[in-house]
Automatic annotation (TrEMBL):
Superkingdom field: Bacteria
Regions crossing the membrane: 38-60, 188-207
Organism: Rhizobium tibeticum
Signal peptide stretch: none
Catalytic reactions of this protein: ATP + protein L-histidine = ADP + protein N-phospho-L-histidine
Enzyme class name: transferase
Catalytic activity, EC: 2.7.13.3
Name of this chain's protein: histidine kinase
Gene3D superfamilies reported in the protein's UniProt record: 6.10.340.10, Histidine kinase-like ATPase, C-terminal domain
Amino acid sequence: MQAHDQGDNLPPGGAAGTEADKAEQRPSGKFGGLTGKLLWLTVVCIMLAEVLIFFPSVAAMRLRWLDERLNAAAAAAIVIDGLQPVELPRALQKETLEATGTKAIVLRKEGTSRLLATTDMPTSVDEQYDLTNVPALTAISDALDTLIFGGNRMIRVYGPVQDTNTGVEVVMKDKHLRNAMLVYSRNVFLLSILISLFTATLVFFAINRILIRPIRKLTGSMQQFSSDPENPQNVFVGDGGRDELAVAGRHLTSMQMELQKTLKQQKNLAALGLAVSKINHDMRNILASAQLMSDRLVDVDDPMVKAFAPKLLRTIDRAVGYTTEVLSYGQASEAAPRRRRIRLFDLTQDVKDMLAIDAQSGIEFIEQMGPELEVDADSEQLFRVIHNLCRNAVQALNGQGAIRGPDGGKRITVSAQRVGSVVSIIVDDTGPGMPQKARQNLFAAFRGSARSGGTGLGLAIARELVLAHGGTIALVEKPSVGTQFRIEIPDRPVSLDDYRSRALQEK
């Protein structure tokens, strides 16, 4: 039977499906989760940064390369110019041009231009570049133009010779320039990959140790705790750090410990509910028998028996009613109130009789309300509310360390008044007061008890019954010793049809 129940809870696919679901919740390896994403993100970001750096760097490389050609041509031009008026032989001119990688060298000096060496002079040039003062954007644009469209163009380049007024001009093909730029670009690309991989690796290990491993530890603890939340060994144990993850770990530990306490309490409540149900079944039968026997007391002629018989019958009837409602209370909530107009004074008298408060008890019970004051409520449920509060007051007054009132007496005062459509009921005592621990969990079952060994169910039930009436119940701070509760119960709203029917009946 147990195996059948477990099989009913399996998802489609049986145990294999459960394992597959668990596998989907696990991180997908070192490089498939956050670490892998972080690694690739670092590589991409560094490559983008290198691309942004590449454009000005390749432009600067191009200017340096052209400047070197101009300097070489300028050195040759100065030598050739020093041989004047002797003309340099054609063979020597050709060797000079080949050494400088140019087609023609022109020297600009004192406002004149002089062709010093030339061979296979082209009829036209495709592009002209002045290296005197080149703006950054222009240098980048020219570099991209050479990389994309260059390689077979004739260009004319000119610029000054060092810091003199002499200038030099050369004509050359841009094939060698473009090849040098391609080699430079390849080297920059390879270097960028190495830098990005190296940086990403460092970031990977650093972030993996600082961030990813603690996160995996947290998620692993969550998964392990969810599989067996009642096992104390599955509670997360942090490293005591001060960063955000360490704080999150401590909060997770606190939450898991609190959840374990709650689960244990719920388990105990379930066991308690089962035990109460069994006891309630037998108790109801016993009370039913007592009810049958007590009915015969009405026929006894003894005056004392006749005086106490109605109260005894009401008490047994209430006990039977309570046992009947135990199971419904444990399954859902209290039954809806069966409201009607009841006299509050008579109800408080029943509470007094039930608690056996008389002159011999040493407790004074005071009722401060008009005998005709009526409240629109369920008589049995309101009786339980006031009875719970007064019973707590009696236990507090009879307990150790109870503080007497200003005149030295033990007193319980139940006062009430009507304001419009709301009846306010106050239950006050001269006991030791409510402890601070009980105030924090005032209306919580099994946690709001003011005395040792108490369950706190009385106040929890009272609050539920008052809320079912649309009212409120609260602990009132008072300057003197003791405990004071205030209950406010509003009347039911009257529909127009009910009002008209009542008006007709009164006529």
